[in-house]
Amino acid sequence: MARGIYISATTSSSGKSLISLGLADLLHRHADRIGFFRPITEAADVADDPIVRMVASAFELPASRARAGLTRTASRELIVSGQTEEIYSRSVEVFESIAAECDIVIVEGTDLTGHDFAVEFDLNARLANHLGCHVVGVVNAHGLTVDEAVDAIDVARSSFYDEKVSLLSMIVNRANAAEATELQSKARPGLHNRKVYVIPEIEEIVNPTVGEITSALGAQLIAGTPMLDREVKHVLVAAMNVGYFLERLVDESFIITPADRSDILTTAIATSRTPTFPTTSGVLLTGPRPVEDTVLPLLAEAPFPVFTSPDDTYTSAHKVWEVRGELSSGQPRKIAAALGQWYKSIDEAELLERMHLPAPTTMTPLRFLHGLIERARTAQRRIVLPEGEDVRILEAAEIIHRRGICELVILGDLKEVRELSNQHGFDLSGIEIIDPAKSEYLEDFAQEYTKLRAHKGITIEQARERMVERSYFGTMMVHKGLVDGMVSGAAHTTANTIRPSLEFIKTRPGVKIVSSVFLMLLADRVLVYGDCAVNPEPNAEQLADIAVASAQTAQQFGVEPRVAMLSYSTGTSGSGGAVDDVRQATELVRELVPDLAVDGPIQYDAAVDASIGASKLPGSSVAGQATVFIFPDLNTGNNTYKAVQQSAGAVAVGPILQGLNKAVNDLSRGCTVEDIVNTVAITAIQAQES
């Protein structure tokens, strides 16, 4: 049966769901199959637990591997009737059904919200023992001094020892950020001399979103933009005149005001549209009076959501102040902030070593992508994003920054970028924003470009004009070493991204052309397809160049390269110009890289199916087990990758550019926010080795 890790809080409001999320992210990359179980849920229905939903969604767990056991009401009835053993029995039954499909199961204990903490603590300890789980104890340091938190760790640890649980780790959560380092140094290790981890309070999680507040109040959206994931950093009751209102307004304020205060409403809209003024995350109009008809058209254009509540201002304010942000809401920005802080606070290698996990035998898409993020986080490179006026870029930038994946520079008109981020509630603090037209680097870049392109007759005036273009400015930042890589293409063509790189970054020594690959993430493995995005009709030499570069890219991302040079015939069965080019290219690859497993011409079915490969190309080290597929032309490659993506449900990551001296990558103009995050991670990894 799979092993289990039981996350047990020692007080209420410990934020243990952050620990569940962090452990799930960590274990998902180091075990084939993980499961998640909550023995007792606060939800009214076991099928509606928000933490289970969040973890299942984040890690694509089927319902059979992410479940809750009993509702709190049902468990309380069993305890009162003297049937506590029934709780243990039912929990073991559900745990075992999950464990039958998993290598490791994360179990999140109860919230300790009952009247008798001691009884509930004991219940969690006994559940952990009945399930055969190691225990991660979570201490809530919110509101405690350093010395009080240190004592709380010792008391909690001693209590776990008294219950004879297998204590894997003690984690302190919600610590004062300014005192986290001191607390870490003063926290005493336990019997096994294991370090205590300290995670500081994360404002982005504690601060509620507009959606969390309005859902708790049952407020009705009547106007504005329905951006419910905006973070609320400040609650402002606006019952004063406009002058005092402006004095108290700060960024991401949630404004509570009577419905007839047209002056406050118009001022809030005006300030949100002015970059030098604080932004508004949302407005709640209170009381029974309707909004004035003359104001409604203006509210319809508000760059924030506007809600109404029949409660008076005083009652509404008290309800709002009682709402606390929850990680279980599943907001991507909250999850990004949580995982970013988790990896800053936890020694991954040390914690994994305690668990002695077996090596995974398969590579799922989610595990591969999570592995990319972790490698990029370790690399900590600096990447420039030239398309700062694209909403997807700004949203991805916020997620990347919160998760600590890499450092970022965004290019764009400062006013436009700030207006766009304010309108959508993105927090870009900590990310450098540069306007190329007003940058201190502009003249130096123009001089450098003039020198590099002197053989083309480029004048300094032409160079200045060219350097104002974002893709050129960003590429020059890469060339000059101010950043380690660039990701562009969300709003521009591939040619716009590649052209500056070809002009002055150039290709690596020995590389003849720039090419691309897609990483095709199938259910249990990763394949590499090239070239599906750049070169329309490569000749034999170019095909060989693409094959060698693709094999190197595969290796860079943990795929053992076995290269299939694809054609419509296998071996010596066919002839003609196209087949002959592939045959010649195969021989060139063997000359260039004698140790590389490569074969061709070979048909796709012979490259992937062992029995067909053995029949059509017996004795081949590639047939039936290829991992890198080189298509004879762009038409074939592009159609094939899209067919596999759509028909087989594969995740296509790319295109990844290869062959350049520096890390530069192109985005599809239809890219999603997730595509941007993944491409930035890939670029950071490439930059580590370029």
From TrEMBL:
Top EC class for this record: transferase
Keywords: Acyltransferase, Cytoplasm, Transferase
Gene3D superfamilies according to UniProt: 3.40.50.10950, HprK N-terminal domain-like, Isocitrate/Isopropylmalate dehydrogenase-like, P-loop containing nucleotide triphosphate hydrolases
Cellular localization per UniProt: Cytoplasm
Pathway membership: Metabolic intermediate biosynthesis; acetyl-CoA biosynthesis; acetyl-CoA from acetate: step 2/2
Top-rank taxon, per record: Bacteria
GO cellular component: cytoplasm
InterPro entries: DRTGG, P-Actrans_bac, P-loop_NTPase, P_AcTrfase, P_AcTrfase_dom1, P_AcTrfase_dom2, Phos_Acetyltrans/Butyryltrans, PTA_PTB
Known catalytic reactions: acetyl-CoA + phosphate = acetyl phosphate + CoA
Free-text comment about domains: The N-terminal region seems to be important for proper quaternary structure. The C-terminal region contains the substrate-binding site.
Name of protein: Phosphate acetyltransferase
Organism: Neomicrococcus lactis
